[in-house]
Amino acid sequence: MPPRDGRSLWDAVRAAGALAERALWGAEASVRLGELVGGSSLGGRLEELRGRSVLVATRDQLTAALALIELDGVARRLVLYPPDLPRKVAPFVMATAAVDAVVSDRAALEAGSVGTVVTCSARLAPADSARTGPHHTEWILLTSGTTGVPKLVVHTLASLAGAINGDRVQTVPAVWSTFYDIRRYGGLQILLRALLGGGSLVLSSAAESTGDFLIRAGARGVTHISGTPSHWRRALMSPSAHRIVPHYVRLSGEIADQAILDHVRACYPGARIAHAFASTEAGVGFAVEDGLAGFPASLLTQRGAEVELKVEEGSLRIRSARTAIRYLGSSGEPLADRDGFVDTGDIVELRGARYHFVGRRGGIINVGGLKVHPEEVEAVINGHPQVQMSVVRTRKNAITGALVVADVVLRTAPDSAETGRVAELEREILQRCRDALSRHKVPAAIRFVRFLGVAGTGKVVRQHA
Amino acid sequence: MSVRASVLAQFERVAQEQKKTLAPLTDDLVLLESGLDSLCLAIIVAQLEDALGVDPFSAAEDAEFPVTLGDFIELYEHAAP
């Protein structure tokens, strides 16, 4: 059930009951929720974090989950630091969120000037569980921005849990799992579903192979499991795909095409298969379970629905109590329009009675669930002295949904006799990209072209999808 | 170059580019244990499409996902024009 007004996450976990039977299973350690009644992951130092803006920057997902359970309602603000975010952006994040305390599971963290550093461990220390606090804690999620600096998105427990309802009471308690990291919106949804819905959760680990994770999830009897279409393509390539027998499979975070929905259905014929639309800013828009790509146009006209959808200028817009509250510290960029609709930036196209996702506004590319802003990559390519201009595009891919490719115009086009020079330039440009960008942002292919289309606005022409 | 040789060459090239240690390329090698991650496999599929002119993953919707390198090569051998 969604937490009622002012109730903290811990209150809601307790209200869901059966604490002794429920667990959070990590790759290395596990904790029964009942152990949190008389124990703390924070070494009994919870009071030091009361009212603070806390950066939760743990290596491990389990320690992060424990810290979130203990700190909601106590801390003023919780900033979830995903493990794959470059350390160099930490000072920006900490300054923007006015972080004045850090929770970490590392012995030594480059905490900078932050005074309070609390170590978080899955080995609980005895502590009382008076976790009530007056704070309506802000939960800060990070999402990728145009310039490589993340945007800080403000949620509350109520907005995050808005899509979780109590109408699907399980006769057997659910064992949830997700390929996502719980510091990302998609993973956090699953953590909260497990915690608020009376279930348990098998956490993934970046250090573990897909096969080992599936075996571990299967051994815990996973019933509900989520991931991006790319996660699922990878899972279906594993000999261990049949080690789980889920009742419910959820795909989100990328376009679920008909092929991946059919593949998942063939592998797990007994499961309900849902593909959901959600984003950090817009929250959970909908989940459909009919096994067909896209979503029914009738979702746009439902009266009295919790989530209102509309399509304007080609993109899907969402208004609900599940959307984020605002951006933190951005240059006044509004998160929603005047009517409260969040523009998802996802371009949809009506075919018959169904909307299909065809790409992203601004050409944002989704490589296996990770966003790439073309401008960021183009800026790196354009830094090469021989490059006049470039445009970074998406190329469809069956493994990661999409890949990044680049069209590049050189200042002086080498003539056809200079193939060696062209190959050399390609190597140099790619090396630049590898030095400056995360792996998924580096173009998989570079094409040298004579010119690029430029629109009346003076901008390079970008095409959706 | 045969389809098999093209596939093997792309595995080696991408592993080198992405600085991954490649397991010995035998037919029973499980792809997820080859030392390559999803991004590497994605790049291989794109480069094979350029080299061979086919993308069997998008062509055959009811085909099973390949588990081993042998499955992967077979997929391309059957799809090659």
Describe the 3D structure:
The complex is a heterodimer of chains A (465) and B (81). In chain A, the strands form 6 sheets. Chain A has an 8-stranded mixed sheet with strand order 2-1-12-11-13-14-15-16, sandwiched between helices. In chain A, strands 7-6-4-5-9-10-20 form a 7-stranded mixed sheet, with helices on both faces. In chain A, helix 7 packs across helix 8. The model of chain A has no long low-confidence stretch (mean pLDDT 88). In chain A, strand 25 and strand 26 (401-410) form a beta hairpin. Chain A has helices at residues 9-15, 61-71, 90-96, 157-160, 185-196, 210-219, 229-236, 258-267, 374-382, 419-436, and strands at residues 23-25, 30-32, 39-40, 53-56, 77-80, 101-104, 116-119, 125-126, 138-143, 151-156, 175-178, 200-202, 224-227, 248-251, 272-279, 283-288, 295-296, 308-312, 315-319, 326-327, 342-351, 354-360, 365-367, 370-372, 387-397, 401-410, 445-448. Chain A is α/β, with parallel strands linked by helices and 465 residues long. Chain A is built from 10 helices and 27 strands. Chain A folds into 2 domains: 9-347, 3-Layer(aba) Sandwich (Rossmann fold); 364-448, 2-Layer Sandwich (GMP Synthetase, Chain A, domain 3), CATH 3.30.300.30. Chain B starts with a helix and ends with a helix. Helix content of chain B is 56%, strand content 0%. The radius of gyration of chain B is 12 Å and the shape is globular. In chain B, helix 1 (3-17) crosses helix 2 (38-52). Chain B has 4 helices and no strands. Chain B is mainly α and 81 residues long. Chain B has one domain: ACP-like (Non-ribosomal Peptide Synthetase Peptidyl Carrier Protein, Chain A, Orthogonal Bundle). The mean pLDDT of chain B is 90. The chains are: A alpha/beta (465), B mainly alpha (81). The interface between A and B is medium-sized, with 29 and 23 residues.
